[in-house]
Design goal:
single chain; alpha/beta; D-Maltodextrin-Binding Protein, domain 2; 13 helices
């Protein structure tokens, strides 16, 4: 039986209308790859056409993320503002994709599920080594010479020290780092501890703790759960300003020498996806943020900076060297 002319017209018209409806749906942040199936199992959950090609709309959505170095509430606020500002300046849809941990951020960038990520020094090096062609776009004005603050519970008996050798006083104490992949909360602190002759097995219990984030480290040391810890200087200052760190309960005992840390890293294929010159336009947008603009002022304040500046990938050679020494880069 032959289909009527009306039916022949209706079928492509229906498909076209369905496609139009899909393109009008709001952009939804994709779930981090670490939380979704992968490989053949994942493809089997999709219609054949979707399994072979990504939806056309994905090519025009800039997916941004960051290592989860602070509480989710603060990160959601900060990167929601970043997404809005970049969308306004670039004229494309920008969506923030939260990550469960530092490793998830590196993995999602490697697989191409994230386009622009705010990495720490170590995670940034890891991401670039795993994704050739990735571009370092910018860092904060405080990142060229960043610092770790060693802190101690006020009742621990620990006192401020004047140089790296004084870290030997931490032997036998309950000590916590932040995330295992944190530059300022683990990598560089461990390097300085080694210079003072302190091995990880020298801490009480034969090993340090890992709090997972800088604000968690401050809370744990302040509560007395640990005698001491190492935290990001910017988060420490912010915690003091916000009243979350109480100087009568937790004190700074040493500030490390400077080292390069956080930076924005972008995929190398953004010009292909968004058009020639897009990567340069993205970099220019980030570098243009100033406190004189109300929205940009909020972003910079949450980042603890006055502005972003250019960054040189070669400057992170020190971070890669230390990462290899402690086994975080192979």
């Amino acid at each position: 039986m032959k289909a009527s002319p009306a039916l022949k017209v209706r079928e492509p018209l229906t498909a076209a209308l369905a496609g139009l409806a899909l393109t009008c749906l709001p952009a939804v942040s994709p779930t981090p790859q670490s939380l979704t199936p992968s490989g053949p199992a994942a493809l089997s959950l999709l219609p054949a056409a979707q399994a072979q090609t990504k939806p056309a709309s994905t090519a025009r959505v800039l997916r941004i993320s960051a290592i989860p170095d602070q509480k989710p509430e603060k990160l959601n606020r900060l990167y929601g503002l970043v997404a809005n500002e970049l969308s306004k300046q670039l004229g494309v849809t920008v969506t923030y994709v939260p990550m469960t941990d530092y490793t998830a951020a590196v993995s999602a960038f490697r697989t191409g599920d994230l386009d622009l990520v705010w990495f720490g020094g170590l995670t940034g090096v890891q991401a670039r080594l795993q994704k050739p062609g990735a571009r370092v776009l910018a860092q904060r004005d405080i990142d060229a010479s960043f610092h770790t603050i060693f802190i101690a519970n006020a009742r621990s008996g620990l006192k401020p020290i004047s140089n790296v050798k004084g870290l030997s006083e931490l032997k036998g104490k309950r000590f916590t780092f932040g995330s295992e992949s944190s530059t300022s909360g683990r990598l560089m602190p461990q390097s300085f501890l080694a210079k003072a002759g302190v091995k990880l097995s020298d801490f009480a219990g034969g090993a340090p703790g890992f709090s997972g984030s800088h604000d968690a480290t401050i809370a744990l040391v302040q509560s007395g759960a640990y005698d001491a810890g190492a935290v990001n200087e910017q988060v420490w200052r912010s915690s003091l300003h916000d009243g979350k760190a109480n100087r009568s309960k937790v004190i700074p005992i040493w500030k490390t020498p400077g080292y390069p840390d956080y930076h924005w890293i972008a995929q190398g294929n953004l010009d292909k996806r968004f058009g020639t010159g897009f990567t340069a336009k993205l970099q220019k947008a980030i570098l243009s943020w100033r406190p004189s603009d109300p929205e940009q002022k909020q972003i910079l304040s949450l980042f603890g900076a006055q502005q972003f500046t250019g960054a040189d990938a070669k400057a992170y050679g020190q971070i890669e060297q230390v990462g290899r020494q402690i086994g975080k880069i192979r």
